[in-house]
Design brief:
mainly alpha, single chain
Length: 321
């Protein structure tokens, strides 16, 4: 029988030092120490995932001034990575990588990308689900860094980054299909894949392509996992894509999506009203909503630029209803 004295001390010492450094998190760090010493690897990975999924409460700095999630990942998780559920490992790696984007020395994303790139070097051990999750999050990380940089999408750097992401999305679509009925945590992988695909299409268009990816993302993602700001942005983008996207006629699918609930009582609720009128083929109702919100519509460039196409869609919907 293994003795507790056989447990590597470096990981425990790190956790205990962080508990002392941040007393308000001492219970959480003590719990991780307990799980580590008892070699309860499944419970340890799940507790660690919960810990790094709440940066507003648990992300701090070490005594050396470095990102606490990165230290936890390097000193506690990586030394035992072979013992862990590989998809959960990839999720912890992703949370750690994204936390670096808000830490001053790492905002360029180089260190963040390295976490996921290094993990993907162990692709054979990860298996298809964890590898696809990590690749998807790596793509999203690149898009996030690009979006925050404010760099034009036509620059050489941007074109290269977007092209790489597009290739990854296309390559992994068939892999994703194979996971649908074989992985118990397939929803997590689907959500990650479609978030990346959706974000890519938001950047480059067209709206109908964004709509196809976004409606899948909504299907596989719990809204409780998103911030209020993220839910609002998703509902707005999804509504605009449905209205303006070529060949998108199933407005009812959007109107009934729980994501749109966050537009209730906001200045953009008129989007829901437009979709509802369109879903019923109510041309007059659609026009009434449009007239009553003319100024707000002018603040939505996609609605203005595709106004004629939107009117044509509503007319066609009226004919089939």
């Amino acid at each position: 029988m293994s003795r507790l004295s056989d447990i590597p001390t470096a990981a425990v010492e790190h956790l205990e030092s962080m508990s002392t450094l941040h007393p308000d998190l001492s219970d959480k760090y003590a719990s991780l120490v307990n799980l580590y010493q008892r070699k309860l690897w499944h419970q340890l990975t799940m507790s660690t995932l919960d810990f790094v999924s709440d940066p507003s409460s648990t992300l701090r700095t070490t005594a050396e001034g470095t990102n606490s999630y990165l230290a936890l990942f390097d000193k506690v998780i990586l030394p035992i990575d072979k013992k862990l559920n590989q998809l959960t490992l990839a999720r912890i790696a992703s949370a750690t990588a994204f936390s670096l984007l808000d830490s001053p020395p790492y905002k360029d994303g180089v260190a963040a990308r390295a976490i996921l790139e290094n993990l993907l070097e162990k692709r054979d051990r990860l298996g298809p689900a964890a590898a696809l999750f990590a690749e998807s999050r790596l793509g999203l990380l690149g898009l996030t860094v690009l979006g925050r940089s404010g760099e034009a999408l036509t620059t050489e750097t941007s074109v290269k980054a977007l092209s790489s992401t597009k290739e990854s999305i296309a390559k992994n679509r068939s892999v994703l299909a194979e996971l649908a009925d074989t992985e118990s945590e397939a929803a997590v992988v689907h959500s990650a894949y479609y978030e990346t695909a959706m974000t890519y299409r938001k950047a480059v268009g067209p709206p109908e392509a964004y709509y196809r990816e976004a409606i899948q993302y909504v299907a596989y993602t719990s809204l409780s996992d998103l911030s209020q700001e993220e839910r609002y942005s998703l509902a707005t983008d999804l509504s605009l894509a449905a209205l303006t996207g070529e060949g998108v006629f199933n407005f009812g699918e959007v109107v009934t999506a729980p994501a749109l609930k966050c537009l209730d009582g906001t200045d953009l609720y008129f989007l829901v009203e437009l979709l509802t009128a369109g879903a019923h083929g109510d041309v007059l109702g659609f026009q009434r909503v449009a007239d009553a919100n003319a100024q707000a519509i002018q603040n939505q460039p996609s609605l203005v630029s595709r106004a004629d196409a939107v009117k044509e869609k509503i007319t066609l919907l009226a004919l089939v209803n």
